[in-house]
Amino acid sequence: MSPLEAISRWLESQDLDTQLEIAAYVTHLIFRKSDVLTLGGPEELDTLQRWLTEPELDPRAAAGRALTFRLAFEYFAEGRITGGGWKRTEELERKNLEQAKRAGKLAASRKAQRKLQLLPTRKEHWFRVAKSWNGLAATYLTREALAVGSLPRCDLKVISNSHCLPLVATVVASQATLVPIVPATAVEGGEGKNEVLFSQKSGQS
Question: Residue 80: what pLDDT?
Answer without folding.
Answer: 84
